[in-house]
Design goal:
By secondary structure, the protein is of the alpha/beta class. It has two domains: 154 residues, NAD(P)-binding Rossmann-like Domain (Rossmann fold); 176 residues, 2-Layer Sandwich (Dihydrodipicolinate Reductase, domain 2), CATH 3.30.360.10. 32% of the residues lie in helices and 24% in strands. The strands form two sheets. Strands 14-13-12-11-7-10-9-8-15 form a nine-stranded mixed sheet, covered by helices on one side. Strands 3-2-1-4-5-6 form a six-stranded parallel sheet, with helices on both faces.
Protein backbone atom coordinates (compact mmCIF):
# COMPACT_ATOMS: atom_id res chain seq x y z
CA UNK A 1 0.00 0.00 0.00
CA UNK A 2 1.18 3.53 -0.70
CA UNK A 3 1.78 5.68 2.39
CA UNK A 4 -1.31 7.67 3.41
CA UNK A 5 -1.41 11.24 2.13
CA UNK A 6 1.52 10.63 -0.20
CA UNK A 7 1.88 12.24 -3.60
CA UNK A 8 2.70 10.56 -6.89
CA UNK A 9 6.25 11.93 -6.96
CA UNK A 10 7.16 9.32 -4.35
CA UNK A 11 5.56 6.37 -6.13
CA UNK A 12 8.21 3.64 -6.03
CA UNK A 13 6.68 0.16 -5.72
CA UNK A 14 8.74 -2.66 -4.34
CA UNK A 15 8.26 -6.20 -5.59
CA UNK A 16 9.76 -9.59 -4.91
CA UNK A 17 13.29 -10.21 -6.22
CA UNK A 18 13.13 -12.13 -9.48
CA UNK A 19 16.59 -11.92 -11.07
CA UNK A 20 16.93 -12.80 -14.74
CA UNK A 21 20.73 -12.34 -14.79
CA UNK A 22 23.64 -13.33 -12.57
CA UNK A 23 25.24 -10.80 -10.19
CA UNK A 24 27.38 -8.32 -12.09
CA UNK A 25 26.05 -9.38 -15.49
CA UNK A 26 23.99 -6.26 -16.16
CA UNK A 27 25.36 -2.99 -14.78
CA UNK A 28 23.21 0.15 -14.69
CA UNK A 29 23.54 3.76 -13.58
CA UNK A 30 21.07 6.38 -12.39
CA UNK A 31 21.52 9.93 -13.66
CA UNK A 32 19.58 13.13 -12.92
CA UNK A 33 17.24 12.55 -9.99
CA UNK A 34 14.75 15.38 -10.49
CA UNK A 35 11.70 13.14 -10.05
CA UNK A 36 11.15 10.49 -7.40
CA UNK A 37 10.20 7.96 -10.08
CA UNK A 38 13.93 7.22 -10.39
CA UNK A 39 13.58 5.14 -7.23
CA UNK A 40 10.82 3.05 -8.78
CA UNK A 41 12.82 2.63 -11.98
CA UNK A 42 15.82 1.37 -10.04
CA UNK A 43 13.72 -0.79 -7.71
CA UNK A 44 12.29 -2.63 -10.69
CA UNK A 45 15.62 -3.09 -12.46
CA UNK A 46 17.57 -4.19 -9.39
CA UNK A 47 14.85 -6.63 -8.31
CA UNK A 48 15.29 -8.17 -11.76
CA UNK A 49 19.02 -8.59 -11.13
CA UNK A 50 20.61 -5.36 -12.39
CA UNK A 51 23.78 -4.22 -10.65
CA UNK A 52 23.54 -0.53 -9.69
CA UNK A 53 27.05 0.92 -10.15
CA UNK A 54 26.74 4.71 -10.41
CA UNK A 55 24.54 7.65 -9.51
CA UNK A 56 24.87 11.24 -10.67
CA UNK A 57 23.03 14.47 -10.00
CA UNK A 58 24.33 18.04 -9.67
CA UNK A 59 22.53 18.28 -6.31
CA UNK A 60 24.52 16.44 -3.61
CA UNK A 61 21.44 16.20 -1.39
CA UNK A 62 19.60 14.19 -4.03
CA UNK A 63 22.62 11.93 -4.42
CA UNK A 64 22.87 11.42 -0.65
CA UNK A 65 19.19 10.44 -0.41
CA UNK A 66 19.56 8.02 -3.32
CA UNK A 67 22.66 6.42 -1.80
CA UNK A 68 20.87 6.02 1.52
CA UNK A 69 18.18 4.03 -0.26
CA UNK A 70 20.41 1.75 -2.34
CA UNK A 71 23.84 1.65 -0.62
CA UNK A 72 23.03 -1.32 1.63
CA UNK A 73 22.09 -3.53 -1.29
CA UNK A 74 24.83 -2.14 -3.56
CA UNK A 75 27.77 -1.16 -1.33
CA UNK A 76 30.03 -0.61 -4.35
CA UNK A 77 27.80 2.08 -5.88
CA UNK A 78 29.68 5.32 -6.54
CA UNK A 79 28.61 8.94 -6.84
CA UNK A 80 29.86 10.12 -10.23
CA UNK A 81 31.51 13.52 -10.56
CA UNK A 82 29.76 14.10 -13.88
CA UNK A 83 27.37 12.44 -16.32
CA UNK A 84 30.36 11.84 -18.59
CA UNK A 85 31.99 9.69 -15.93
CA UNK A 86 29.04 7.30 -16.20
CA UNK A 87 29.01 7.38 -19.98
CA UNK A 88 32.74 6.63 -20.09
CA UNK A 89 32.36 3.42 -18.06
CA UNK A 90 32.22 0.54 -20.58
CA UNK A 91 30.67 -1.80 -18.00
CA UNK A 92 27.44 0.22 -17.78
CA UNK A 93 24.84 -1.19 -20.15
CA UNK A 94 21.83 1.01 -19.31
CA UNK A 95 21.27 4.49 -17.90
CA UNK A 96 18.05 5.22 -16.01
CA UNK A 97 17.04 8.86 -15.71
CA UNK A 98 14.32 11.01 -14.21
CA UNK A 99 15.67 14.38 -15.31
CA UNK A 100 13.43 17.41 -15.70
CA UNK A 101 11.07 16.30 -18.52
CA UNK A 102 12.42 18.81 -21.04
CA UNK A 103 15.91 17.31 -20.54
CA UNK A 104 15.01 13.62 -20.73
CA UNK A 105 15.27 13.40 -24.49
CA UNK A 106 18.69 15.12 -24.77
CA UNK A 107 19.98 13.08 -21.82
CA UNK A 108 19.00 9.92 -23.69
CA UNK A 109 20.73 11.02 -26.88
CA UNK A 110 24.01 11.29 -24.98
CA UNK A 111 23.55 7.85 -23.45
CA UNK A 112 22.79 6.19 -26.78
CA UNK A 113 25.72 7.96 -28.48
CA UNK A 114 27.93 6.45 -25.76
CA UNK A 115 26.66 2.96 -26.56
CA UNK A 116 24.24 2.65 -23.63
CA UNK A 117 20.57 1.72 -23.63
CA UNK A 118 18.40 4.36 -21.96
CA UNK A 119 15.40 4.16 -19.63
CA UNK A 120 13.61 7.47 -19.12
CA UNK A 121 10.87 8.43 -16.74
CA UNK A 122 7.69 9.56 -18.44
CA UNK A 123 7.08 11.85 -20.26
CA UNK A 124 10.22 11.17 -22.28
CA UNK A 125 9.86 14.33 -24.40
CA UNK A 126 8.26 17.74 -24.27
CA UNK A 127 8.40 18.49 -28.03
CA UNK A 128 7.89 16.55 -31.23
CA UNK A 129 11.35 17.67 -32.35
CA UNK A 130 12.87 15.82 -29.39
CA UNK A 131 10.92 12.70 -30.38
CA UNK A 132 12.21 12.98 -33.95
CA UNK A 133 15.77 13.30 -32.65
CA UNK A 134 15.35 10.19 -30.51
CA UNK A 135 13.91 8.17 -33.37
CA UNK A 136 16.93 9.07 -35.50
CA UNK A 137 19.32 8.22 -32.66
CA UNK A 138 17.73 4.80 -32.13
CA UNK A 139 18.06 4.13 -35.85
CA UNK A 140 21.69 5.20 -36.08
CA UNK A 141 22.99 3.77 -32.77
CA UNK A 142 20.90 0.62 -32.46
CA UNK A 143 20.33 1.47 -28.78
CA UNK A 144 17.03 1.35 -26.90
CA UNK A 145 15.12 4.35 -25.59
CA UNK A 146 12.62 2.82 -23.17
CA UNK A 147 10.10 4.71 -21.04
CA UNK A 148 8.84 4.16 -17.49
CA UNK A 149 5.07 4.17 -18.05
CA UNK A 150 4.65 3.17 -14.43
CA UNK A 151 0.86 3.28 -14.16
CA UNK A 152 0.76 0.05 -16.18
CA UNK A 153 4.26 -1.40 -15.93
CA UNK A 154 4.59 -0.98 -12.17
CA UNK A 155 1.05 -1.85 -11.15
CA UNK A 156 -0.06 -5.43 -10.68
CA UNK A 157 -3.72 -4.87 -11.52
CA UNK A 158 -2.77 -3.18 -14.78
CA UNK A 159 -0.35 -5.95 -15.71
CA UNK A 160 -2.95 -8.60 -14.91
CA UNK A 161 -5.43 -6.74 -17.11
CA UNK A 162 -2.81 -6.79 -19.88
CA UNK A 163 -2.83 -10.58 -19.71
CA UNK A 164 -6.63 -10.85 -19.48
CA UNK A 165 -7.12 -8.70 -22.56
CA UNK A 166 -4.49 -10.60 -24.55
CA UNK A 167 -6.18 -13.87 -23.59
CA UNK A 168 -9.47 -12.58 -25.01
CA UNK A 169 -11.25 -12.45 -21.65
CA UNK A 170 -13.53 -9.61 -22.74
CA UNK A 171 -13.36 -10.12 -26.50
CA UNK A 172 -12.46 -7.32 -28.85
CA UNK A 173 -11.69 -4.09 -27.00
CA UNK A 174 -13.94 -1.26 -28.14
CA UNK A 175 -13.12 1.52 -25.70
CA UNK A 176 -10.65 2.38 -22.93
CA UNK A 177 -11.41 5.02 -20.28
CA UNK A 178 -8.44 6.26 -18.26
CA UNK A 179 -8.72 8.37 -15.12
CA UNK A 180 -5.45 9.68 -13.68
CA UNK A 181 -6.05 12.04 -10.75
CA UNK A 182 -2.91 12.98 -8.79
CA UNK A 183 -2.17 14.76 -5.53
CA UNK A 184 -0.05 17.87 -5.89
CA UNK A 185 1.38 17.68 -2.40
CA UNK A 186 3.82 20.25 -1.05
CA UNK A 187 7.34 21.23 -2.02
CA UNK A 188 7.15 20.69 -5.76
CA UNK A 189 10.12 22.17 -7.64
CA UNK A 190 9.75 25.28 -9.77
CA UNK A 191 9.87 23.34 -13.04
CA UNK A 192 6.72 21.45 -12.04
CA UNK A 193 4.69 24.61 -12.76
CA UNK A 194 6.41 25.56 -16.04
CA UNK A 195 4.78 23.94 -19.12
CA UNK A 196 7.89 24.37 -21.26
CA UNK A 197 9.79 22.20 -18.78
CA UNK A 198 7.20 19.59 -17.73
CA UNK A 199 5.39 19.47 -21.08
CA UNK A 200 1.81 20.24 -20.03
CA UNK A 201 -0.65 17.99 -18.21
CA UNK A 202 -1.66 15.85 -21.22
CA UNK A 203 1.99 15.31 -22.10
CA UNK A 204 2.97 14.53 -18.51
CA UNK A 205 0.25 12.51 -16.75
CA UNK A 206 -1.55 11.81 -20.01
CA UNK A 207 1.40 9.78 -21.30
CA UNK A 208 0.43 6.97 -18.92
CA UNK A 209 -3.12 6.91 -20.20
CA UNK A 210 -2.26 6.91 -23.90
CA UNK A 211 0.22 4.06 -23.41
CA UNK A 212 -2.50 2.01 -21.74
CA UNK A 213 -4.94 2.73 -24.54
CA UNK A 214 -2.50 1.43 -27.14
CA UNK A 215 -1.78 -1.67 -25.03
CA UNK A 216 -5.34 -2.64 -24.15
CA UNK A 217 -6.95 -1.74 -27.48
CA UNK A 218 -4.21 -3.13 -29.71
CA UNK A 219 -4.18 0.08 -31.75
CA UNK A 220 -0.84 1.04 -33.27
CA UNK A 221 -1.78 4.64 -34.03
CA UNK A 222 -4.59 7.06 -33.21
CA UNK A 223 -6.10 10.41 -34.10
CA UNK A 224 -6.72 13.09 -31.49
CA UNK A 225 -10.46 13.84 -31.67
CA UNK A 226 -10.66 16.27 -28.74
CA UNK A 227 -8.24 17.76 -26.23
CA UNK A 228 -8.63 20.45 -23.57
CA UNK A 229 -6.69 21.76 -20.59
CA UNK A 230 -7.45 24.26 -17.84
CA UNK A 231 -6.03 25.99 -14.80
CA UNK A 232 -8.94 26.01 -12.38
CA UNK A 233 -7.21 26.63 -9.07
CA UNK A 234 -3.58 27.75 -9.46
CA UNK A 235 -3.78 31.49 -10.03
CA UNK A 236 -0.31 31.93 -8.55
CA UNK A 237 1.00 29.84 -11.48
CA UNK A 238 -1.00 31.20 -14.45
CA UNK A 239 0.68 28.97 -17.08
CA UNK A 240 0.12 25.77 -15.08
CA UNK A 241 -2.49 23.19 -16.09
CA UNK A 242 -4.32 21.34 -13.31
CA UNK A 243 -6.96 19.66 -15.50
CA UNK A 244 -6.82 17.91 -18.85
CA UNK A 245 -8.99 15.66 -20.97
CA UNK A 246 -8.68 14.09 -24.39
CA UNK A 247 -10.27 11.52 -26.66
CA UNK A 248 -8.63 9.39 -29.33
CA UNK A 249 -9.79 7.25 -32.23
CA UNK A 250 -7.51 4.28 -32.77
CA UNK A 251 -6.52 3.01 -36.19
CA UNK A 252 -8.48 -0.17 -35.41
CA UNK A 253 -11.69 1.68 -34.52
CA UNK A 254 -11.30 1.56 -30.73
CA UNK A 255 -11.89 4.80 -28.85
CA UNK A 256 -10.30 6.35 -25.79
CA UNK A 257 -11.20 9.03 -23.27
CA UNK A 258 -8.83 10.23 -20.55
CA UNK A 259 -9.10 12.69 -17.70
CA UNK A 260 -6.08 13.79 -15.68
CA UNK A 261 -5.96 16.35 -12.88
CA UNK A 262 -4.31 17.62 -9.70
CA UNK A 263 -7.43 17.64 -7.52
CA UNK A 264 -7.02 14.61 -5.24
CA UNK A 265 -8.60 15.69 -1.93
CA UNK A 266 -6.69 15.44 1.37
CA UNK A 267 -9.08 12.78 2.65
CA UNK A 268 -7.99 10.14 0.14
CA UNK A 269 -5.63 7.63 1.73
CA UNK A 270 -3.27 7.56 -1.24
CA UNK A 271 -1.97 9.92 -3.92
CA UNK A 272 -4.66 9.34 -6.54
CA UNK A 273 -7.72 7.22 -7.27
CA UNK A 274 -6.39 5.95 -10.59
CA UNK A 275 -8.88 3.85 -12.52
CA UNK A 276 -9.08 2.25 -15.93
CA UNK A 277 -12.20 0.83 -17.59
CA UNK A 278 -11.76 -1.48 -20.58
CA UNK A 279 -14.91 -2.30 -22.54
CA UNK A 280 -14.92 -5.28 -24.88
CA UNK A 281 -17.64 -6.83 -26.99
CA UNK A 282 -17.83 -9.77 -24.55
CA UNK A 283 -17.37 -8.07 -21.20
CA UNK A 284 -15.60 -5.31 -19.35
CA UNK A 285 -12.81 -4.79 -16.82
CA UNK A 286 -12.38 -2.07 -14.21
CA UNK A 287 -9.07 -1.45 -12.47
CA UNK A 288 -8.98 0.29 -9.11
CA UNK A 289 -5.24 0.66 -9.06
CA UNK A 290 -4.26 2.33 -5.82
CA UNK A 291 -7.29 2.18 -3.53
CA UNK A 292 -10.81 0.75 -3.44
CA UNK A 293 -12.51 3.83 -2.05
CA UNK A 294 -14.40 3.31 1.20
CA UNK A 295 -13.67 -0.43 1.18
CA UNK A 296 -9.97 -1.25 1.08
CA UNK A 297 -6.91 1.00 1.25
CA UNK A 298 -4.80 -1.51 -0.66
CA UNK A 299 -4.61 -1.20 -4.42
CA UNK A 300 -4.44 -3.60 -7.36
CA UNK A 301 -8.11 -4.51 -7.58
CA UNK A 302 -9.45 -5.99 -10.82
CA UNK A 303 -13.19 -6.24 -11.46
CA UNK A 304 -14.36 -8.22 -14.48
CA UNK A 305 -17.84 -8.90 -15.82
CA UNK A 306 -18.43 -11.38 -18.65
CA UNK A 307 -20.90 -14.05 -19.76
CA UNK A 308 -20.04 -16.13 -16.69
CA UNK A 309 -20.81 -13.43 -14.12
CA UNK A 310 -19.02 -10.90 -11.92
CA UNK A 311 -15.58 -11.36 -10.39
CA UNK A 312 -13.28 -9.39 -8.11
CA UNK A 313 -9.59 -10.33 -8.35
CA UNK A 314 -7.10 -9.06 -5.77
CA UNK A 315 -3.71 -8.97 -7.47
CA UNK A 316 -1.60 -7.29 -4.77
CA UNK A 317 1.62 -9.31 -4.37
CA UNK A 318 0.48 -11.98 -6.82
CA UNK A 319 1.44 -10.75 -10.28
CA UNK A 320 4.81 -9.05 -9.96
CA UNK A 321 6.53 -6.65 -12.35
CA UNK A 322 7.89 -8.70 -15.23
CA UNK A 323 8.60 -5.70 -17.47
CA UNK A 324 11.95 -4.99 -15.81
CA UNK A 325 13.37 -8.46 -16.25
CA UNK A 326 12.13 -8.54 -19.82
CA UNK A 327 13.78 -5.18 -20.45
CA UNK A 328 17.13 -6.42 -19.15
CA UNK A 329 16.94 -9.48 -21.38
CA UNK A 330 15.90 -7.32 -24.33
CA UNK A 331 19.01 -5.18 -23.82
CA UNK A 332 21.24 -8.25 -23.66
CA UNK A 333 19.60 -10.12 -26.55
CA UNK A 334 18.49 -7.10 -28.66
CA UNK A 335 14.89 -8.32 -28.60
CA UNK A 336 11.62 -6.45 -27.90
CA UNK A 337 9.60 -8.59 -25.50
CA UNK A 338 9.14 -6.00 -22.73
CA UNK A 339 7.94 -3.27 -25.10
CA UNK A 340 8.62 -2.42 -28.70
CA UNK A 341 10.41 0.80 -29.49
CA UNK A 342 7.57 1.73 -31.82
CA UNK A 343 5.04 1.39 -28.98
CA UNK A 344 7.10 3.46 -26.53
CA UNK A 345 7.49 6.25 -29.05
CA UNK A 346 3.89 6.14 -30.31
CA UNK A 347 2.54 6.70 -26.79
CA UNK A 348 4.90 9.67 -26.46
CA UNK A 349 3.82 10.99 -29.86
CA UNK A 350 0.13 10.85 -28.98
CA UNK A 351 0.55 12.75 -25.73
CA UNK A 352 2.56 15.44 -27.52
CA UNK A 353 -0.06 15.74 -30.27
CA UNK A 354 -2.91 15.89 -27.75
CA UNK A 355 -1.08 18.58 -25.80
CA UNK A 356 -0.46 20.61 -28.94
CA UNK A 357 -4.11 20.30 -29.99
CA UNK A 358 -5.56 21.12 -26.57
CA UNK A 359 -7.98 24.01 -26.24
CA UNK A 360 -7.45 26.00 -23.04
CA UNK A 361 -10.65 26.26 -21.07
CA UNK A 362 -11.60 29.17 -18.87
CA UNK A 363 -11.55 28.43 -15.12
CA UNK A 364 -14.84 27.01 -13.86
CA UNK A 365 -17.05 29.65 -12.32
Amino acid sequence: MNPPKSDGANYAPQGKPNPVVKPGEFAIAAAFLDHGHINGQCNGLTEAGADLRWVFDPDPQKVAAFLAMFKTKFPAIKAARSYDEILDDPVVKLVASAAVPSERGPTGLRAMAAGKDYFADKPPFTTLAQLDDARRAVSTTGRKFMVYYSERLHNESAMHATDLVRQGAIGRVLQVLGLGPHREGAGRPAWFYEPARYGGILCDIGSHQFEQFLTYSGATDATVMHAAVANHAHREHPAFEDFGEASLLGDNGATNYIRVDWFTPPGLSTWGDGRTLIMGDKGYIELRKYVDVGRDQTGNHVYIVDDQGERHIETEGRVGFRFFGELILDCLNRTEKAMTQAHAFKAAELCLKAQAAARRLAPAA
